[in-house]
Amino acid sequence: MSERKYFGTDGIRGKVGEAPITPDFVLKLGFAAGKVLARSGSRKVLIGKDTRISGYMLESALEAGLAAAGLSAAFTGPMPTPAIAYLTRTFRAEAGIVISASHNPFDDNGIKFFSAEGTKLPDDVEEAIERELEKPLTCVESAELGRASRIVDAAGRYIEFCKGTFPGELSLNGLKIVVDCANGATYHIAPNVLRELGAQVIAIGVQPDGMNINKACGATDLRQLQQRVLEEQADLGLAYDGDGDRIMMVDHLGQKVDGDQILYIIAREALRQGQLRGGVVGTLMSNMGLELALKQLGIPFTRAKVGDRYVLEKMQEKGWRMGAENSGHVILLDKISTGDGIVASLQVLTAIVRNHMSLHDLCSGMKMLPQILVNVRFTGSHDPLESESVKAAAAEAERALAGRGRVLLRKSGTEPLIRVMVEGEDEAQVTALAHNIAAAVKAA
To answer: What are φ and ψ of residue 121, in 5° steps?
Structure first.
């Protein structure tokens, strides 16, 4: 794969007003994508966004660029990322575009593309768009220009799709659920899905103002949700991130339930129902407790690099249908083509209703091992991971854990950090080992 200038692992992302998230670049990106995508089919592209204030500016710029290349834009307004993947397929569009920076603060934004099949764009298409970006911006003949339209029933269509992933013979009657929508793209979707399935819903994080997305709420900050679940004596809490592709949960005791535990519950339920095909994909960060619990059930497990695109690649390579990151990206390919927080939460709710068990009890089959993560900032061009003293400290930790834990050192993909992760049965030992390695990284 050639080195790409703009596309990262998750589209193009950055601070609004700084390259590449500027109106002129996004106009050009719309044009370049339009030129590449206009070679076939319906000549229509779906554009969805989360609730950031910059979404208005960026969707206008994209629309102008697409129109100049001869493609028509159909706007959905604020919609979860997985909803755009789904709607792109149902509308037979050339592509779907999501304007979102997911769980980042409001002054970041990004552009993410989906293919006509609702999957991430193939590398060669992204590379073709990058090549087109180097060329001057032109314009098709007036008679060929694209138009803009709005899809008025986008939310209703997606709500029905989500409900369709919950068994028709079951209902959420009698369940009291607090749902935190992070003032993001699920604010008008998730509470309706749950209510229509019969739950009593207390919704928080559902008053987006363009600037409060992910702010002290949602999947990246559970404190508000934990407090509210306890106050309301609710059965559980659900937290989505700003664009709705991540889910974290809270049990009735206010305890966090992360992506590893959610994956375990869904996999075990699929096994019980005879619907599990193959195994389960986690990441290098997945808790060892998940691996051990799946092993007890006889479910194959493998780890991918950190990042939902790598989880998906590994799933496709193995022909498996289920994978997740501990941060709450849960991908269920028998339901939808990408990670979907609402769909994943409905599968856990199915297990709760079907087994007449609380979320807390459903988690009890899996013992989370203490996992200590220390981030160490480094400067300069040297790679601390190549240092002999760092390697020696890691090897010493491995020996101390004696096969009953793991050590993982990796570079952050987005900032100059080394992430030191140590996992084992004894929290005090694991903490000491992690800080010992971190000290070696600092000194390197």
So the answer is: -60, 140
Model pLDDT for residues 347-397, shown as the tens digit of each residue: 999 999 999 999 999 999 999 999 999 999 988 788 899 999 999 999 999
Does the predicted TM-score (pTM) go above 0.85? yes
Q: How confident is the model at residue 318 (pLDDT cuts 50, 70, 90)?
A: very high
Is 100 an active-site residue?
no
- Assess contact for 197 and 172: CB atoms under 8 A: yes
Pairwise CA distance, residues 114 & 336, whole Å: 13
Angle at 96 between CA 95 and CA 99, to 5 degrees: 145
DSSP state of 60: H
Task: Give the Cα separation of 433 and 361 in Å (integer).
Answer: 32
Query: Choosing from 54, 60, 72, 102, which is the catalytic residue?
Result: 102
Query: Minimum mean pLDDT among 5-9, 224-228, 352-356, 358-362: which range?
Result: 5-9
DSSP 3-state assignment of 312? Answer: helix
DSSP code of residue 339: -
SS3 283: strand
DSSP 6-32: S-BTTBEEEETTSTTSSHHHHHHHHHH
What would the 3-class secondary structure string for 359-415 be?
Answer: HHHHHCCCCCCCEEEEEEECCCCCCHHHCHHHHHHHHHHHHHHCCCCEEEEEECCCC
Neighbours of 279 (CB within 10 A): 19
